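#onboarding

Welcome to the new folks! Below is a worked example of what a typical request in this channel looks like: someone posts a single protein sequence, and someone else replies with the predicted structure as tokens. Don't worry about understanding the tokens yet, we'll cover that in week two.

Example request:
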Amino acid sequence: MEIVYVYVKKRSEFGKQCNFSDRQAELNIDIMPNPELAEQFVERNPVDTGIQCSISMSEHEIMEHCIKQNNAIDIYEEYFNDEEAVEVTEEDPSAKTINVFRDPQEIKRAATHLSWHPDGNRKLAVAYSCLDFQRAPVGMSSDSYIWDLENPNKPELALKPSSPLVTLEFNPKDSHVLLGGCYNGQIACWDTRKGSLVAELSTIEFSHRDPVYGTIWLQSKTGTECFSASTDGQVMWWDTRKMSEPTEVVILDITKKEQLENALGAISLEFESTLPTKFMVGTEQGIVISCNRKAKTSAEKIVCTFPGHHGPIYALQRNPFYPKNFLTVGDWTARIWSEDSRESSIMWTKYHMAYLTDAAWSPVRPAVFFTTKMDGTLDIWDFMFEQCDPTLSLKVCDEALFCLRVQDNGCLIACGSQLGTTTLLEVSPGLSTLQRNEKNVASSMFERETRREKILEARHREMRLKEKGKAEGRDEEQTNEELAVDLEALVSKAEEEFFDIIFAELKKKEADAIKLTPVPQQPSPEEDQAVEEGEEAAGEEGDEEVEEDLA
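Example response:
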């Protein structure tokens, strides 16, 4: 469709109309030169004259328009700021409440999942459900809502599933499409342009048998592929264009026998688009399972496991800057892991009095993450400055917080509570601005703690094998010699890397000191001659004193 717009301007705004005619030239006045007038002037020689690089021009309407354009644009604006040059802010970390979105239903339900609108982040999708098994009140609504951040009084759109939603995610490629995981195990898909009713729904026979605790969109060309995880021990891949059955199923049986009765229940799901073949699952049994989707057989798709927590792992997310490191939350702690160290986490928080329910990394700062607890507290951790305690702890509400989601710019945080209240908070710029040299510091800390855990793991293996050798009647000294090689190699490598860093810093300081040292000026030839004459005179006086002593 062609769109035409006509710009209208009054004839009077063009100025006086010019009338041209063909006629001979006329001489109006002729002034003859007068030599007597030259005597009234004094000649200046030399004369200083300013010269411009461009020709002189008179004022015109078009020129005035260009000047106004230049005044409207900041020609000194920095378009490519160096992220590493950002100065560390010295202000105290803080956060403030922006808005509160309450469940409009009379029978309150828990806010179980949050999702930011991919275009502009001006909308928030909230999934509401009651997770207490067979304790849902009679008459409880199954609706979930999409909220406009500027209007907390009424939701923008109500989503009406057949069963309450446990998860809800916007499609990053098409903001009108949402994916939901239902309490009864079905996968539902909405198109907001078509209204509140479900657009696509998986059949109950080929869906999950338990509530769907994780749904994630895949970075595919079509933008219609996704996968889901449930406590029934299955991970399923779907194409929203055909929801009758899943395209692929993985059974989370760590014994690799593919038996559903031995599968571990999935309660959190993680996928990083930069690692398209890998995905991770947090289970009810406290174990993190790392999987490879492109393995040849279903048994080989389970790559390895991490013994995570004492209870269910409610949150699992890779660091957006260093995907090899990931964050988990379960029982009373939050832990940071490295894929290179599988026996234990490399960093962890202290054991809290309240149960932890969710966690997320900051999308703009690699050293910052957020956690929520059952006592209604939001903790903000910045291990660049503090590792033992949270940098900021906020009492958001009196009831338990169940979920949180951080906006892409790192400024806004949404927290969902047990009574269906979603609180929107804004953090201070220091917590949402990349600090100077933060990436290098975080990377060094992750690598150092990974090396430390490897050394401890080697020591533990040595002790276990030593005990095994004793039980088998082997000689203890021989066992020590065989098992100490690995530990010594790791220790020597760690020492070598440590001293390399120290020597590099010392060389850098020496180079900086040399640059700052003033260069001595070379003496003039006259000064050199005066110094030589002074030295000769001093030598002659010394010779005379020696002769007098000998006399």
